[in-house]
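Hi R.,

Here's the chain you asked about this morning:
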Amino acid sequence: MCARNRNGGLDNPLIKLTDWTLDEFKTIMPARVLAQLTGFFFCGNFGDPILNKDLLEMCRYSTATNPNLNIRIHTNGSAKSTAWWTELVSVLPKTHCVVFALDGLQDTHHLYRIGTSFDNIIKNATAFIKAGGKAEWCFIKFKHNEHQVDEAKQMAKDLGFDAFVVKNSSRFLLEPKTDVLDKNGLLTHIIEPSTETPLKFLDKKAIESYKEIVSASVIDCQACNQKEIYIDAYRNVFPCCWLASLPYTYIDENAAFGVRNEMLNQYYDLVKSLGGINKLNAVNNTIESIIDSNEYQTVWSTYWNEKKLITCARMCGRAEINDYAKSRDQQQEVIFYE
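And here is the predicted structure, written out as tokens:
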């Protein structure tokens, strides 16, 4: 259900493989920028930060420059050796957290996290925790794993995780099921939402009346409220990951094509208003020059109040459309351990 592929088996042709280098990271995040930050996330829209060969050095540099940073890494945790995970602890600041995506136990985790190994993740997480790392177990609840929540919660506590988070997926669209395909496009199994999910799903009526729903939305931007920016894998600065992902999301003709095509058109209109994609590139332009530009500082009122971006209304708006999904919250339950 991730946008980097189509139904788990077919590659998304819109996404091209790319990786930040250490030099690029230092260019984008120089000492003067790091000194102003309370923290940042390594959290890929389409990839996994631990696969970046320079991640340890990026963390080492950031911690040495501003030891008061809070660095959080979101990962499926299936890659690298236990030695690598032990070393990661030594290059992170005191305030840090690695969020491991563990959606079930050994017999169910792989049904959604295709290609990952539950045993590897547990082994890596254990090495990280034993070395002094702070970890969080994030469990996305589906019909196939909802019966394992209590067992997973106890396992997280026994292994020394600092927190256990349960979420309901908001990635189901027109109907509460998703076909999972292999590399040949053949059906292998079906993913369904938890029977206990509080989320509602878009029906045909909601799709047809989306303009009225968006028009009635009051957008309260989370990125603005929390003073955040998002820099994508292509080094471009956006307020959030939701806007940044739009040009790389494959549009299936059966999946609310008209709405999603309109969202894409709005994206290109916004980028043009911001001066074009080249002006948003954080390697060729400083973060300060991008954010402090007249375009960036003045464009949002138009797109929140007048043009009302569908993406913004969906993720940060107060209206009927938000019965469908809520970005980071997703009706999550968080258990913190002593």
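One quick note: The two ends are 34 Å apart (CA to CA).

Cheers,
M.
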